[in-house]
Amino acid sequence: MKTKVYTFFQYVLPHRLLSKIVNWLMRVENKTIKNFIIRKISKSYKINMEEAESSDANDYKHFNAFFTRKLKSSVRPIDKNRQHIISPVDGAISQCGKIKSGRIFQAKNYDFSVEELLACDKTTGERFKNGEFATIYLSPKDYHRMHAPMDCKVSKTIHVPGRLFSVAKWTAENIPRLFARNERLVCYLETEIGQVAYVLVGAIMVSSMETVFNGLVTPPYAKKITEIELNDNVNLKKGDEVGQFNMGSTVILLFPENTVKLDSELIENSVVKLGEKIATILK
Q: How confident is the model at residue 19 (pLDDT cuts 50, 70, 90)?
């Protein structure tokens, strides 16, 4: 019953209004307020501040600066093996595995199509029809910058407006097509194995996303699907920064068929860290 009530409120809450309020609160610069929030959140979620470039709350202009803090370069070593694809973020595996006839498993009895997630045409969807996918959830305790999973060129980014449902496990288990309904940024990466889709999914209280090549994407919130113009030379090495979530959310990777083998250790709820191998290139 409790889950049904929570799910009901996910549908009726004013998602964007709440996200705008949180977006403002995260940027309050009053030292007393922002330091209190930083210390409270750090303690509540057991954030390891020793990994951050600075462990001093006073060094952060506001809470969002803390939330998107940089880490010491030594704490997330990048697997340099050319055959290995790395986790682009810190987080936990929500789901991963085979894309079956163009359908991506979400949770329980729910799935969604590649075309729905990418807001793409059938031709683009066919590239991933029987490929592999990995959905990685970022909780409030995690590092919130995103990085390149392999050497690539960003060829296109598509901003897809949508809802801002929570992306926690219980909502994934109770809201159909969750990730294909939420606001998201679809990035297409040109790589040695072909085109890889790198999807940044927004969520309630978590709808602000930015990239190193586009700057701030949301807010403001769009009303229609929009391709964002790119510089011709957005080339990234494995481990290079892609962007950040201003608050946490979810990253989904899609790989073409017969190009990668996901690590067998990747199972639901398994923890991954930036730079760790999550898959091996087959060719």
A: confident
